[in-house]
Specification:
The complex is a heterotrimer of chains A (about 350), B (about 220) and C (about 800). Chain A is mostly beta strands and about 350 residues long. Chain A has one domain: AttH-like domain (AttH-like fold, Beta Barrel). Helices cover about 5% and strands about 55% of the residues of chain A. Chain A has 1 helix and 23 strands. Chain B has a single domain, classed as P-loop containing nucleotide triphosphate hydrolases (Rossmann fold, 3-Layer(aba) Sandwich). Chain C has about 800 residues and is an alpha+beta fold. Helices cover about 65% and strands about 15% of the residues of chain C. Chain C contains 24 helices and 20 strands. In chain C, the strands form 3 sheets. In chain C, strands 11, 12, 13, 14, 15, 16, 17, 18, 19 and 20 form a 10-stranded mixed beta sheet that branches. In chain C, strands 6-5-7-4-3-9-1-10 form an 8-stranded mixed beta sheet. Chains in contact: A-C, B-C. Chains A and C meet through α1 and β4 of A and α3, α4 and α6 of C. Chain B: Pfam families: ABC_tran. Chain B: It comes from Pontivivens insulae. Chain B: This is Putative ABC transporter ATP-binding protein. Chain B: GO terms for molecular function: ATP binding; ATP hydrolysis activity; transmembrane transporter activity.
């Protein structure tokens, strides 16, 4: 899923503070290289340790999205993400640490979309993750609690802030084959588990207005060292919280030849995952939006079909201008689901900024 | 060629205006030579300066080939001097930093009328052929005045105005220079107005008029 | 026609090559000195601007902890975690390869975008940049100089400030031995968050962007001084040009008349003369700018050293090529030529076509010129006197100097003429009568060169008096100020305690000197805490005091203020002031004012116990040690060995004194160099004037030769008269120079540095200078006199033959 976006993001990030953007993506391909660990299909998750960081892997994230409503039933969405990127495997003292952290926060309303971004070095305490008791933070943004299943979430940025309490009784759901998530036909893969069953409650701040909200949230945890295939140009990733209690994770990785690699997981209300084969999913863009901030044109209304589960839905962006104006920009925002099933979810799209120059 | 009518000129002095010319009438035809004689202070040089446009007239008119000198601007008078007139002074007024040859060709070049054949002829006739590479300060007075005459004639002026051209030379040298000048003037067809205090020299020109106290006698 | 006229005008120079050489030389020298000063100033200003803008210093707020040079980086983490978007920096100096290097460590990830470094690293290299080895950015020249020195891997980045290494904060901490410590934080001006003192328990102060203002304000006076010298040299150079052009005009007058008589219109003639002037100015301008480049390159290292020593301003010691500077040099050459030729052009316009034969007209002309000059001189001197009473800014001070110098220069011909008239009245024999009388005739031609000499001599006396007085005051002051035998800076407080305990038996006193920077009345001031001890009571150089300054200090109710701060803020003893401290305002009474030469900053002194009470975080590392005489060297050797102290950590009094004096001397190196150059130009002006004058002197001396004086006698007389004129000028330069010194020391220095200095007189220096002027005049007159002595009789005869 959102593995792929981190690489270009990281790349931009590494260059920017010291200079302008330079070279392209070359060299950050499929090879893990330089002593980084590689995911192994046989390994199983071990909690709470796996809630914490895995510094031997090149990249890792703690990725939260929430679909929220106020008392009047208006829809909102928030995103909270902490990325870890290793310049070299392992840890080192203080400023010598090769670990680099990046935070993204978003808040979407029907009228607007707010974005915040933070960067930090590892080793000095400005950002990090501790498994037990769980804490993930960068600057004054945090995601903390006894375990990730019962935690407080907070972030702020230019013109917005949010503070939410998250809780879930459901188990963490391994994606892919028992947590081994394949990302291409060539076999790139990552470790990937989710907590898609949070209930969320808290307060959004938009400008100087405080809004009490409730809703659902979804956590993705993923780490890897070699997630991107050379011929993959971008992706469209969906997390769907259906009103009947099912959860669906689905993505398509677009390839240079115009075809795409599909994958997903059907999750029962009890939290049992059923991997979806590449040909079990169909994605059809129905309408596009031109993003004002970047000029990129991308689909903000989709038809998604999973015939084996009789799912045929249309998803619509709550705010078609949900553009993440970060070092490496992308689109991420809440969606509404209609059709054979109803519900809410999140959509992320990358790789659209280049084809609309 | 030159027609002067009721020309008046006075100079400001500490004792009030001093009239120098008090109504002078004079005319000169093409190809004619005229001597203007008079005592020191009679105003003869002043008349010449007015005719050359070197000074401005108070009253009356001087016309040269139909052009009223008094109505010309400073640039117009410069143009008149450059294209129609030739001036020869008692001090030879050569350009000390130019060679003799360059001095000889100077005014003809300035007037845009350089005629190499005529230049050569004048140089030879004036006996300056061997002196072309010298500097003015290396010449005797007679040689310098011959260069000045040659410079004027080389430009083929319509009218030559000469102010005591031999005044700085001894008698023999002066006569020699005057001979050359008159014969070349005759050859070129120019008119000549020469100011001199010497009756002997004046007698050699076609005509003479005498100024006394600012009026023609 | 234009080409012909142009060629004819130029033909004059071919016949008089010396004149054109003089003219070009004068204009070249004037342009060169002017451009050199401009180049030095431009280079320095560019360095300040680059230093301010590099790393965003002109756009970012700074956060520092009052009373502490550094603080623990946990405070940074605490602020980040409280929502402050600040970025950490660690800065310091190390010494490597005989160079003091400024180390700047920053964090590329949190650095605001305004903090551009100009450097590029790609993703692969970032690991190395963060890693234990580190990568440092520096300008290419510095890298070449640091070849083989033990430092992080160096990467050339053009535009990095001079003598500066930019690197990752972790590498900088290791290099500066400041593990886990930061010296300041930066943020964009809009950054907000909870009160930093509440978050961290440290007394953070936030300082707005500097925009290079501090260093500009500090160094402005220095650059103004340089500019004043540049203008002076330029003006003196123009004297040469003026006399050369004037002479050429006189000699070309007959040619101009002939050209006009032959029918060249006046306007055309003027345009051609202007074109000729422009061509000459272009040649001289190019040569002048090129020469100026070398002069500037020669001066720059001293200027850079001065600015570093005096203001801590970093200026690159090498000169950059600036196209704008070339253009400005050519423009100033044109302008100078035009100013010098204005008079000649004006006279060409009014040149009567008919030459008047008035051999004695010079007398009337000279009288008219002198009447005009003395009126202008009176006006300027009146302005100068008025200015002396009113001048209250640096610009006004320099305007006053300009008025004084102009007034004196313009009055010079009249004064000299008066002296010559007095001499003539007393002369007995006919020859001596002629000598005096002819001197007056000569004066109208020589007066400009003599004016240049007067200006140069009085500038020399004025500046020399100031520098010598300053040196005398400064040396005495150093003795008072540096009364302690050894000055010690410990690495940390534990080391300080250990050293103090160890040396206790061998010292007679251990005096703490703790200090902190304060933002007070909108400026950065240093607050020093000192002990109550005879060392201060007996020696400290107070220049104004209340009844019992040291008792007030001991009682922690009094504060001492340095002279420059007192002058700037209008503070006198007895005034009350309040200082910001971490625990609120501290009300104090001004107990005394003390002199503090060589320090551009404002400084305050309080009792050390009072300081540590109000600023508990202050570093307690510096001490002055008093010991019995003669024991300092042994103790320093012992301590250096035992405690592994660096040369900066333990310094004896003698070393500081010699360092201070060397900084002082360097400060005036450039002044002295420009002074010598100005005097040289003035001598050149006199020489060229004499040489050209000699060419016109033949008609004046020929009759005397005819009447029976030998050429050798005439030559001696000519030379003697020039030396006499130089002597008179030199004597007149002394009072003018002293007036200048007075203005420099009581107006310029006070405005520029905030120091008032006593004036000392150095008659021997004046004597030396006047003798120098006489030698210069004798040399200037020697060659023309020699030529006169060797003039062939024929040339003298010709005067009678064709002089009109």
């Amino acid at each position: 899923m959102n593995a792929e976006r981190f690489f270009p993001l990281l790349f931009a990030m590494l260059l920017l503070p010291v200079a302008g953007l330079g070279q392209g993506f070359a060299g950050l391909g499929t090879d893990a290289g330089e002593g980084f660990a590689v995911p192994d299909p046989q390994t199983r998750f071990s909690f709470p340790d796996d809630h914490g960081p895995h510094p031997d892997y090149r990249i890792e994230w703690w990725y939260l999205t929430a679909n929220l409503q106020d008392e009047a039933g208006r829809d909102y969405g928030i995103q909270w993400t902490l990325f870890r990127s290793a310049l070299a495997p392992g840890e080192a003292e203080a400023w010598s640490s090769p670990q680099v952290w990046m935070g993204h926060a978003g808040l979407t309303t029907p009228e607007a979309h707010f974005v915040g971004e933070r960067l930090a070095r590892g080793g000095i305490g400005q950002a990090g993750v501790v498994a037990d008791p769980f804490a993930a933070w960068i600057d004054d943004w945090s995601f903390e609690g006894a375990t990730p299943a019962n935690a407080s979430l907070g972030a702020s940025g230019d013109g917005f802030a949010y503070a939410l309490e998250l809780s879930s009784d459901a188990p963490f759901v391994p994606q892919g084959e028992d947590g081994y998530s394949v990302k291409s036909a060539e076999g790139q893969a990552s470790y990937y588990y989710s907590q898609p069953f949070y209930t969320a409650e808290g307060t959004l701040t938009v400008g100087d207005q405080q809004i009490a909200v409730t809703g659902t949230a979804w956590l993705d945890r993923e780490w890897s060292s070699q997630p991107l295939s050379d011929n993959q140009t971008g992706w469209d990733w969906f997390s769907l919280s259906l009103e009947d209690g099912h959860r669906v994770m689905a993505f398509r990785l677009r390839q240079t030849d115009g075809t795409a690699y599909h994958s997903g997981t059907w999750i029962t209300p009890e939290g049992t995952p059923q991997p979806l084969a590449p040909d079990a999913l169909r994605f059809t863009p129905l309408a596009t939006t031109r993003v004002e901030r970047s000029g990129a044109t991308l689909p903000t209304r989709w038809r998604i079909e999973i015939p084996q589960h009789a799912l045929d839905i249309t998803v619509d962006a709550l705010q078609p201008q949900s553009w993440m104006e970060t070092l490496f920009p992308y689109w991420e925002g809440p969606i509404a689901i209609t059709g054979s099933h109803t519900g809410r979810g999140y959509l992320e799209m990358t790789g659209y900024d280049e084809d609309t120059q | 060629m030159l027609v002067a009518k009721s020309v008046e000129k006075s100079f400001q002095t500490s004792n009030g205006p001093l009239p120098v010319l008090r109504g002078v009438d004079l005319s000169l035809k093409s190809g004619e030579t005229l001597a203007l004689t008079g005592e020191s202070g009679s105003g003869k040089s002043t008349f010449l300066h007015l005719a050359a446009g070197l000074d401005t007239i108070d009253a009356g008119t001087i016309t040269i080939s139909g052009t009223d000198v008094g109505t010309l601007s400073d640039a117009g008078r410069a143009e008149l001097r450059r294209s129609r007139l030739g001036l020869v002074f008692q001090q030879f007024n050569l350009i000390p930093s130019l060679s003799v040859a360059d001095n000889l060709a100077f005014q003809a070049r300035l007037a845009g009328r350089l005629d190499p054949a005529w230049q050569v002829e004048i140089t030879e006739r004036l006996g300056l052929a061997d002196l072309g590479a010298r500097w003015p300060e290396q010449l005797s007075g007679g040689q310098q005045q011959r260069v000045a005459v040659g410079r004027t004639l080389a430009a083929r002026p319509d009218l030559i105005l000469a102010d005591e051209p031999t005044g700085n030379l001894d008698e023999a040298t002066g006569d020699q220079v005057l001979d050359l000048m008159l014969s070349l003037v005759a050859q070129s067809g120019a008119a000549l107005l020469m100011v001199t205090h010497s009756d002997r020299l004046a007698a050699r020109l076609d005509r003479r008029v005498h100024l006394r106290l600012g009026q023609l006698a | 026609m234009t080409a012909l006229v142009f060629r004819t005008l130029l033909s004059h120079w071919r016949r008089r090559p010396f004149q054109i050489v003089t003219l070009l030389l004068g204009l070249t020298v004037a342009t060169a000195l002017w451009s050199a000063v401009q180049a030095v100033n431009a280079e320095a200003r560019a360095s300040y601007a680059a230093a301010a803008s590099r790393l965003g210093g002109d756009q970012l707020d700074s956060f520092t902890v009052q009373g502490a040079n550094s603080f623990d980086q946990s405070a940074y983490i605490a602020l980040r975690r409280a929502g402050w978007e600040v970025s950490p920096m660690v800065e310091g100096r190390i010494r490597r390869a005989d160079t003091t290097l400024r180390i700047i460590g920053f964090d590329p990830l949190t650095a605001p975008p305004q903090m551009g470094t100009g450097a590029t690293l790609d993703a692969d290299e970032l690991g190395g940049f963060f890693g234990p080895g580190g990568v440092a950015f520096a300008e290419p020249d510095l890298i070449a100089r640091l070849d083989g020195v033990d430092l992080p891997e160096l990467r050339a980045v053009d535009g990095t400030p001079p003598r500066t290494l930019l690197m990752d904060i972790g590498a900088a901490q290791r290099l500066l031995d400041l593990d886990g410590q930061l010296t300041r934080l930066v943020s964009v001006p809009t950054a907000t968050g909870p009160d930093p003192s509440d978050v961290t328990g440290l007394a953070f102060t936030r300082t707005p962007p500097e925009q290079g203002n501090d260093i500009n304000a500090l160094t402005d006076s220095f650059h103004l001084n340089l500019t004043a010298f540049g203008v002076l040299s330029f003006v003196v150079g123009l004297f040469i040009v003026y006399s050369a052009i004037g002479l050429a005009f006189e000699q070309r007058k007959p040619m101009l008349r002939t050209l006009r008589a032959c029918g060249v219109p006046l306007a055309r003639l003027l345009w051609v003369m202007l074109a000729e002037l422009a061509a000459l100015a272009l040649i001289a301008g190019l040569a002048g700018v090129a020469l100026g480049y070398f002069v500037a390159a020669a001066l720059l290292p001293d200027v850079a050293a001065t600015l570093d020593g005096l203001y801590g301003a970093n200026v690159d010691g090498t000169l950059a090529f600036r196209p704008g500077w070339w253009a400005a040099g050519l423009a100033i050459s044109m302008l100078g030529a035009l100013i010098a030729a204005a008079d000649t052009l004006w006279r060409t316009v009014h040149l009567p076509l008919l030459a008047p034969a008035q051999p004695n007209a010079w007398l009337g002309a000279q009288r008219r010129a002198m009447r005009w000059q003395i009126m202008a001189a009176s006006l300027f001197i009146a302005l100068a006197i008025l200015g002396a009473a009113l001048a209250n800014s640096l610009i006004a001070g320099f305007a006053l100097i300009a008025a004084l110098m102009l007034g004196a220069a313009l009055a010079l011909p009249t004064l000299l003429s008066f002296a010559l008239r007095v001499g003539a009245a007393r002369a007995r024999g006919p020859v001596s009568q002629w000598v005096w009388a002819d001197g007056r005739l000569q004066l109208s031609r020589l007066s400009l060169a003599l004016m240049a000499l007067l200006v140069a001599l009085s500038a020399n006396i004025g500046v020399g008096t100031m520098v010598s007085s300053f040196r005398e005051t400064f040396t005495g002051w150093l003795d008072q100020r540096l009364a302690s035998e050894i000055y010690l800076t410990a690495r940390d407080e534990a080391q300080a305690d250990a050293i103090l305990t160890y040396v206790a038996p061998r010292t007679t006193a251990q005096l703490p000197i703790f200090s902190t920077d304060l933002r007070w009345q909108g400026q950065q001031v240093e607050l020093f805490g000192v002990a109550d001890h005879a060392t201060y009571r007996d020696n400290w150089p107070l220049i104004a005091q209340g009844p019992a300054p040291w008792d007030q200090l001991r009682a922690r109710t009094g504060v001492l203020v340095n002279e420059q701060l007192a002058l700037r803020e209008g503070i006198s003893p007895g005034d009350r002031l309040s200082l910001p401290t971490p625990s609120g305002l501290w009300a104090l009474e001004v107990a005394a004012i003390y002199s503090d030469y060589g320090n551009p900053r404002g400084q305050l002194m309080v009792n050390v116990a009072g300081l540590t009470e109000r600023f508990p975080d202050v570093d307690r590392l510096r001490y002055a040690l008093r010991l019995p005489p003669g024991q300092a060297p042994d103790l320093i050797a012992d301590l250096t060995e035992r405690f592994d102290l660096g040369p900066q950590q333990i310094i004896d009094q003698q070393a500081i004194k010699s360092l201070s004096l060397s900084i002082f001397e360097r400060t005036f190196t450039v002044t002295a160099a420009l002074n010598v150059l100005t005097l040289g130009v003035a001598a050149l002006a006199l020489f060229t004037a004499m040489l050209t004058l000699q060419l016109m002197r033949l008609p004046a001396v020929a009759p005397l030769w005819a009447m029976g004086l030998t050429r050798a006698q005439l030559a001696r007389i000519e030379m003697g008269r020039t030396v006499l004129l130089a002597l008179l000028t030199g004597v007149l330069a002394i009072p003018v120079g002293l007036a200048l010194a007075w203005v420099l020391m009581t107006i310029i220095n006070v405005q520029a540095f905030g120091w008032r200095l006593p004036i000392f007189l150095y008659p021997l220096d004046w004597l030396r200078l006047v003798l120098l002027a006489l030698v210069a005049a004798a040399l200037a007159a020697a060659l023309p006199a020699l030529r006169l002595a060797r003039t062939p009789p024929g040339a003298l005869l010709r005067v009678f033959a064709d002089e009109r």
